[in-house]
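Batch 3, record 17
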Amino acid sequence: MSAPLLSVEGVQAGYDDILVLKDCSLEVRAGEFIALVGPNGAGKSTLLRAITGLLPVRAGAIRLDGDRIDGLPPYAIAARGLTMIPEGRRLFAPLTVRENLELGAFLRRAPGQQQETLHLIFRLFPVLREKALAPAGVLSGGEQQMLALARGLMARPRLLCLDDPFLGLSRLVTNRFCQAIREITAGGMTILAAGQHVRRLLRLAHRAYLLDEGHVVLSGPGPGLLEDERLRRTLLELIPEVDRPIG
Amino acid sequence: MSLTTLAQTLASGALLGCFYTLMALAFSMVLSVTRALNLAHGDLIILGGYLGYWFWSGSGLHPLLLVPVAGAALLPLALLWQWLFNRLPEPKELSSLVLTFGLSLLLQNIMLALWRGEYRLIASESLTGSIRLGGLRLNQGRLIVAAAALAAVGGLYLALTRTRWGRAVRATSLDREAAALLGINVDQATRTTFLLALALSGGAGVLFATLHYLYPAGGIELTLLAIVLTIWAGVGRLRSVLVAGVLLGVIEALTVAWSGPRWRELVVALLLLASLLARSGGLAGGRSH
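Prediction for the assembled complex:
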């Protein structure tokens, strides 16, 4: 089997005096959709922040294609093809939809490649074409989430991290969103997605990791993991409340 | 006041306003990328003015040629400033006030020691005389200063809106983390913006020294003007800064023409109060989402 695209090896990270990630190891292979689930405060966002370089790693190693990336600044990691759609979208609100998309393609200097990705994005989310000249801040929540995903796609990353991609979205928008993610994954994009919408994520995922109190406690194929007793126990209250079965 | 005098006042106020725009832009650039309020902004401009005066009295060169020289002369200081800013604890908006207030006093005293309290002016002959335009007499020095300031502002506008560097700077000032995740080197964008802003301040100082007498404590008023304009226009809004700068120049000129120079500062202070009341959401308020 080939070497993993991303490997996280015994990583520790945290904020000030608090160690959030105590010992995290996981692997993402090219073309996979990996879900990262766990209760609130388990360290999902912290792990993504450590991987993307927003948070320093205190111990362990993170490798992209075999090369160490822990310790690099986030822009250098992004330049190697790893980007994230952060929690809360973090769009450039006063700038237009088009300007946001152009900034997404900041690393790609050839305009031809940009056009190709733009076509894909407008096919997935036609509303972004209609509102190309509107400031990102006036879009609805669902549209903003689409723009955030589209902005990340514009970079054509080798690995795209999603932090709580369905947070605050209506069921209808979430369905649309899952559909778009399926299409993107089918196109060969590698995705690592963390979030609280356990059912949604596990049904999309090839494989999944369960994170609890800073440790990876369980891993396995996505839909299979959904039936696992330990996952059910860890997320007991979360599963029925946060999302219901897809209709 | 006759119509000609009024037109004359408006024109000369607008010319001065172009200088204000340049000065406020430099202040606002620093604020937008570092989130630091640089209370020593005016003192840096005055320092640039003194350096320009010093070069001018030594060399006799045309003051316009000394604008880039004074700008470059401030770069070592800019590096020191940045080193200090990087070490500020959060919240930077607040802790920068303490730091830069101290730096402002320090600079004022250094200038007092170097050039004493005497008033200095770059009274170059190439800047005196006036140009007749219709019924108006426009001071040549003011025209040159306004043209130089507008050229700098225009160049900055093009750089920020049309270049890769400008896109990086705008994204960095809006959301540092989001920008970094897209591969934008936010540290470099911050560093270059900061150095450019301080170089512009130094250059603006030379322009200022051809219009007004320099004295070591003169920077406080310039800082105040920069803050007023930034609140009026909003952080990082280039076109609004231009409008606000010209407007401030005109209001000031009208105040002086109607009621004499001693009311000038009071009017500026009242404008600051009024704009704070109107924009109670804070410096960047009003347009946030």
